[in-house]
Design a protein that fits this description.
Number of strands of chain A: 12
Distance between the termini of chain A: 50 Å
Largest sheet of chain A: 6 strands, parallel
Strand content of chain A: 15-25%
Strand order of the largest sheet of chain A: 2-1-3-4-5-11
Helix content of chain A: 40-55%
Oligomer: homodimer
Largest interface: A-B, 52 and 52 residues
CATH class of the largest domain in chain A: Alpha Beta
Number of domains of chain A: 3
CATH architecture of the largest domain in chain A: 3-Layer(aba) Sandwich
CATH superfamily of the largest domain in chain A: Response regulator
Order of helices and strands of chain A: HHHHEHEHEHEEHEHEHEHEEHEE
Shape of chain A: elongated
Structural class of chain A: alpha/beta
DNA sequence: TTGTATGCGTTATCAG
DNA sequence: CTGATAACGCATACAA
């Protein structure tokens, strides 16, 4: 921005005062219709663009929100961001976003940067390792509402927008049961994540839904050590009574598991059936692929996240739902 | 941003003038060292954050750039954006980005929005169908430099940062030749895109490098009609002397081609070898996958794009290179 | 219906 | 070395 047309320029050319022009442009009823038209026409002609910096300075509002996500490389987040972006733009908000790359300390630093940037609200999907979210208190105290999405904190009740993973998990199990499976294993996600906990509980409920027993041997947490998924799969497959299907916390896990099977047991008579969260577009190109993916529409989720934050920024704080759930659906490949 | 500590607050508390505090904070030499220290300490203690809106208003600079890309869903762009983001942040610039979803008219509208947002510079990767880029003239006339990246206009000489696709293509062909291939087909990209034109020419040069003849029958443009890739593949495979390897404009095309082969010619004696642009992370999970991917490091590319724009925004306009090329490298699967 | 005055938080100029 | 003052572009209470 070098030098744009200002209200003053317009006012001078029209022989009006700056404030009159200002009002006319914002359709203030106290300005006569003929003047209003004159003003708007000139503004159009001169290609007037209001200076946001001035408006923000005046109104003490920046129409700017911060978005913090783990990693844009995950296409799910890329789409969520799209939903946020589009919805925010529709409400004249601009978005400053950054990525933590799963590093909690980087998360801290980014939040500080956001503050420095004077955001009006924050949308955040925390790191898998984030255990304390007291930054929320600082922000909320400063009048900056915080809304979590996808991943939510377990150390507080938050405003958040998430996929309805519990129901999604039940649905996934139901699908496997319909396919005739009775021994269904679960590769679960990090215990520290609420999200993975919910999916785990959905799995348990899914089994109960069909009067299937819960066998602890069928539940694996691939987390520590090298090639954790390989080890988990190894244990599963060597059970006396191995599973016939596996429900995974995320389809990225499914891919690792399948790689393992193809590498170590290429000639297995009966392949395992998989189903997991995350509708990766490239999955359909894989031969040995999961039966189906379960997921909420990421764009909807992003839109809902912005909507909730928007409500909170509009100080209608009492009426808003604290938690919003986006329904999941199954995509069969 | 509700209400932050201001210079005035600090000044009052210190019994100094606002301007003195302002100078102290910016290390103005005209302020005594003891005062400077006093000021900085209080600023720290009170957690002072300068108000960007005010600074921008004063300095007529927003430290904000616009980024327009086709689609974030393409992981290549997701990574380029990461490079831009990180580098911009390091220079105190914030980034406003939007996606065109390959729609030229949306592109127009977005540029207007950017103007309204008073960006100091624009980084853009145009639509596959963008044929006129006269918006550049408007922007440059307004003092807003424009730098293209990845995809460049063919209706003007631009400032741009691109992958060195020409050399990359030659390298790809060399790899195939080393593998013993002599009949190498090319699935090329849209003729309207400079990028795809360059890759096409790199392919031609690659053949010449090894004294291979150019056979027009081996060059296909999968563009119009339904399932264009399928049709192109169909034609190639039914040639009297079909190709033994295919060099594709983009590995997304490779995937479509492979799907076709698996569907229509599942029992083909000797499978075709593929190589294409775009290092998709999920490729390694596919059984019938391309031999290799050729690509520039997207993060480097993003960083270079910001760097070029940054130079141009810093009015060192005479010294800067107009075109920057990022080298490609081969990833063998 | 329109104009005037003031202030948002900061920086730059000029006096002291 | 430090302080007063004006200005950036806009919105708003108040005066006319």
């Amino acid at each position: 921005m070098r030098r744009g047309v200002t209200l003053k320029d317009l006012a001078k050319e029209l022989g009006l005062s700056v404030s009159a022009v200002s009002k006319a442009l914002r359709n203030d009823p106290s300005i006569g219709p003929s003047t209003t038209v004159r003003v708007r026409q000139l503004a159009e002609g001169r290609n007037y663009v209001p200076n946001l910096a001035a408006i923000h300075l005046k109104q003490k509002r920046n129409f700017k929100i911060g978005v913090i996500i783990p990693d844009l490389f995950d296409q799910f987040y890329a789409l969520v961001l799209r939903g946020i972006e589009d919805t925010a733009a529709r409400h004249q908000y601009s978005v400053v976003f950054t990525q933590t790359h799963e590093q909690p300390d980087r998360e801290r630093a980014l939040i500080d940067t956001m503050l420095r940037n004077r955001i009006d609200g924050l949308l955040i999907s925390i790191t898998a390792k984030t255990d304390r979210t007291d930054f929320v208190d600082q922000l909320e105290a400063a009048g900056i509402p915080v809304v979590f999405f996808v991943r939510t904190p377990h150390d507080r009740v938050s405003y958040d927008v998430t996929a309805d993973s519990f129901e999604g998990s039940r649905e996934a199990i139901m699908y496997l049961v319909q396919k005739g499976h009775r021994r269904i294993a679960h590769l679960r996600g990090p215990t520290a994540m609420t999200l993975s906990q919910v999916r785990y509980e959905g799995y348990l409920q899914g089994l109960r839904d069909h009067q299937l027993p819960v066998d602890p041997e069928l539940i694996k947490l691939p987390e520590s050590g090298p090639d954790p998924t390989d080890r988990a799969m190894c244990e599963l497959i060597q059970l006396n009574e191995p599973p016939t299907a596996i429900f995974t916390y995320k389809n990225y896990l499914t891919l690792d598991a399948i790689s393992f099977l193809q590498r170590e047991y290429p000639t297995r008579a009966r392949p395992l059936d998989f189903i997991g969260f995350g509708n990766l577009p490239l999955l359909k190109h894989i031969d040995y692929r999961p039966l189906a993916a379960i997921d909420a529409d990421p764009i909807d989720l992003g839109a809902a996240a912005f909507a909730l934050l928007h409500q909170r920024m509009g100080n209608a704080t009492d009426l808003v739902e604290r938690q919003v759930k986006i329904p999941c659906h199954l995509t069969v490949y």
